[in-house]
Amino acid sequence: MRTLRYPSATPALLPSASGISVLQFSTFVILLVLATSTVSAAVRTSAKSGRWRAGSTWIGGKVPSATDEVVIASNHQVEFDGPANHQDECAKLTIQAGAMLYFSPSATSFQVGGNGPGVPGGIDVAGVLTVRAGVTVEIDPDGNAAAEEDGVTVRAGGELRMLGTVIHQGQAATVVSDDNTSNIAFSDPALSMGSQTAPYRVVWRSGQRKGRWYDIASFSQGVLSLDYRSRSNAERLGEPDYRTGLASVSGRTVTGSGTQWTAATGDGSWWWCAADGIQRRVRIVRVISPTSLWLAKDYGPSACSFPSSYVLRDENQPSAAADSSERILPGDSYQVILPATLRSRNGSDDNFDEQIFVRLERGSTYLFWNASFESLGKEAWKPSAGSGIRIVGFQGPASKGMINTVEIYRYGGDAAIEWEDSGNFDADWLFLHWAHPMVTRNEGHGVKIQTTTPEGSADNVRIRNARFDRTNDDFVWWNTPCGGTSGVYDSIGKYCPN
Predict the structure, then answer these.
(1) DSSP H or E run through 338
(2) Hey, CA dihedral for 364, 370, 376, 382, is it positive or negative?
């Protein structure tokens, strides 16, 4: 939001005792302000139901631009009829009670820009926002690292629907490649896909890789290839480097002098001799003692044959990011899905300050089905805040509050999902991955379930088929006397200490 800037009056413009009248001076100042001030962003309000790109849909007949704040008025249904612009569709979007935004079959992407650092933006939903399969909604959080500023807020009576689609459900017939050094490839004669594979993702439903999501690298003649570096196997960047003391290496053994290596920082991390360079890095299998490491393979000839400077890049977890114990086997089941996606435009593995939020206020509803949420929450917000998806006061039926085959990838703050003063939490196939590595102590939970008032029942909390990878704290943090059939069932968790 650009603000009006008023010029300071100069001495030559001030009225004298015998000169300009008060009325003349006031009129002159008003004209001067209008002539020299910048113009605020326009507000474009819907005139009726219709297509986003049609001028007749909007009051004044003008299609919204990247700098406009858009309001879909009550009882209007607007269809976004992409394809996407090369710029944002608007700076902020408000969907009033009884209104709806949905996406045409041709739409693939919808961008909401920023309206200035410190100015709340994003999408405000009092009506219904429906994101269908194959659509990615991106929000630019303006780069304001210290404020919970831009994201999606669902008000009382509003509903957020993320509705992806299962394209194929099958089994691996033969495994062509799965060695954590190249793409994962397997055959499935029953799978038939077109040439366009980029929007699709594979979700494993059984076996060692159960719960992991992968981007498709290619598909040809019944062989599906997955990018082994995508999603859960990508290396986390931005980790701290430890260089205390000196170290020498011989074969798979690293011997330190003046070092204080611990399992919390060493196991599963990278080690290399500083003089050899990062390209020579090798995984650490285990920390034997504060002055001894055991590597995953023979390091080979090194400039650290004698005690020298080294680098230990902390992966902040007890095992490697690409877990060597996980393999697919013939018969393992999987799904190809076309997800509905909500993400920060700029959130990345080494930039958790460019994240957004999802807030469902008391009285709102949601349906997350085959959905992907990327870069949610923010570590820089105050402690006990900044969760990715925060649901407050939901006590509705399961049909208005379901989570099934949902991924939350890259999250910071207090938790990936914060479930507060709510009941009937029903989550199936929930995958939470890659918490912020530098969160405040006791933050970075997978799911946080709590009650703050006596009437805030947390009964009937069910989490099935869940996977919590690289979580900085608890997988599920309970601060409530949960009852009913509450529990976590058939889940995989990997603890990552702070």
Answers:
(1) strand 333-338
(2) positive
Which residues are within 8 A (CB) of 337 and not within 5 positions of it... i.e. 6 or more apart?
133, 164, 165, 166, 167, 200, 201, 202, 203, 370, 405
Residues, the chain, total? 498
Give the span between the Cα atoms of 210 and 96, in whole angstroms.
40
Q: Determine the Cα–Cα distance for residues 114 and 345; give it in Å rounded to an integer.
A: 11
Q: Which helix (H) or strand (E) holds 264?
A: helix 263-266
CA distance 451 to 394: 12
Q: What is the DSSP letter of 46?
A: B
Between CA 433 and CA 231 the distance in angstroms is: 8
Instruction: Report the C-alpha gap between 264 and 261 in whole angstroms.
Output: 9
Do residues 390 and 360 touch, judged by C-beta distance below 8 A?
yes
Segment (H or E) for 28: helix 22-36
Q: Which of these, 115, 3, 127, lies nearest to 69 by C-alpha position?
A: 115
Long-range contacts, 352-355 (Cβ 8 Å, 24+)? 352/378, 352/379, 352/380, 352/410, 352/412, 352/436, 352/438, 353/143, 353/145, 353/378, 353/379, 353/380, 354/141, 354/143, 354/145, 355/141, 355/410, 355/411, 355/412
* Model confidence pTM above 0.90: no
pLDDT-flagged residues of the chain (< 50):
1-39, 236-238, 317-324, 437-442, 495-498
How would DSSP label each residue in 196-221?
A: --TT-EEEE-SSTTTT-EEEEEEEET
User: Among candidates 168, 101, 186, which has minimal Cα distance to 137?
Assistant: 101
122-174: pLDDT as tens digits: 999 999 999 999 999 999 887 655 567 789 999 999 999 999 999 999 999 99
Look at residue 344 and give its three-state secondary structure.
strand
Cis peptide, bond prior to residue 397, ω within 30 of zero: no
Return all residues near 437 (Cβ < 8 A) that are at least 6 apart. Answer: 236, 238, 239, 316, 472
- 48: Cβ–Cβ under 8 A, 6 or more apart, which residues? 56, 57, 76
The whole-angstrom separation of Cα 328 and Cα 186 is: 9
The pair of structure tokens assigned to 64 is 């919204």
Structure tokens at 141: 């959080």
